[in-house]
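Quick one:
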Amino acid sequence: MAKANLDRKDMPRQNPEERAKNFDEVALGYTPEMAASEAGRCLNCPKKYCVSGCPVGIDIPPFIAALREKDLPRAARVLKEKNALPGVCGRVCPQETQCESVCLLGKQGAPIAIGRLERFVADWERSNPSLEKTELPAPSGKKVAVVGSGPAGLTCAAELVKAGYKVTMFEALHVAGGVLMYGIPEFRLPKEIVQGEVRYVKSLGVALHLNSVVGKIDNVDELLAGGYDAVFLGTGAGLPIFLSIPGENLSGVYSANEFLTRVNLMKAYRFPEFDTPVKIGKKVAVIGGGNVAMDAARCALRLGADEVSIIYRRSEVELPARREEVENAKEEGIKFRFLTNPKKFLGDAKRQLTGMECHEMELGEPDASGRRRPIPKPDSDFTLECDVAVVALGTTPNPLIAQTTSGLEVDRHGTVVADEATGKTRKAGVWAGGDVVTGSATVISAMGAAKRAAADMDRFLRGVEQVPA
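Output:
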């Protein structure tokens, strides 16, 4: 057996000093030579361990084999068979904990860079659009409404239209893409990439209605009564979670949701070309340790803050953000204050934020998340100066859908109760997937849930016996 090639190809990136001052994409992508070299490392394992680690089931070895053989059209076709959003997934999917984590080469420390190869193929296809049309089955005559056009909605819509259903997607905002548009910065996920994926889903035959708030124009009951045979809820989780401490309503305190929506969707980073101001002070504190916290901190730095700090109540070991994003933030000069938690926001006579009263933390026994529970240290209070704070503690679903849909069950967090294996809710004819079910999670987990739901919806619409919810 040939010796394993452990020479994993790094992806070129912008220099940290340069990228910290612009919103251009940080990762520059593989060259064709790099992609060919990385694809050549694949062992083409008969058991396809990597596929088992992919939430959407991409047939990874064949797409890499096609790339190695320089048959890029075939590589793109293999990707698109299972994933309608490869350009997105190649950039933001946490491959290191999924497909790459079970790659056999990873046991020796250098798994195939599956995500980077996926990105390369998706970008090649965007630059070399195929004239081939996806073959669709004969129309079934049945209609499905997909509520939300984020990663879950786009995935479910693509799967169902390819199964022969007439699909209409309803989006509350003026542009499709959901969290891919409002939540993830341009330097990590260029918006033209997202819109290219949206155009692909529309090209399959999905109808898209923008500025359409389900629960206001029509509710779910009215959609079902008005001719739709099934409804998928992929509305995400856009309601921010706050700390519930004194001073949280001071000027200068943002939720990460508002901050990133202003910067990304409303393009505050291009003010005054786009008429969306966002306050950036000299010292910015971002509370949280996930990818959203990293995104907010790195945006604040690019918008001109002198100093940006991540405030996290556990240690670096427990940080939930991707290692790559943490490393990028550190390289760009973001400071990290671990084992620290705010007690109170402080303001001046004009109710402008001036700082945070914090206390140091220590770690106790593991809690329900499996991480060690942070406990305040006695007599450890101190004041941290800042004039902008961004609270990045996660999100929950907007309650509008639940409030306007009879028989739809939600839990105490406001998330829709749905079967994990099928996406089926407690309401007949309604499925759900993504953050509306789980709370804020990853793009690829939302896509995987949407694929499972689409498969179960297809069984329902064809009259095939389903898995009990």
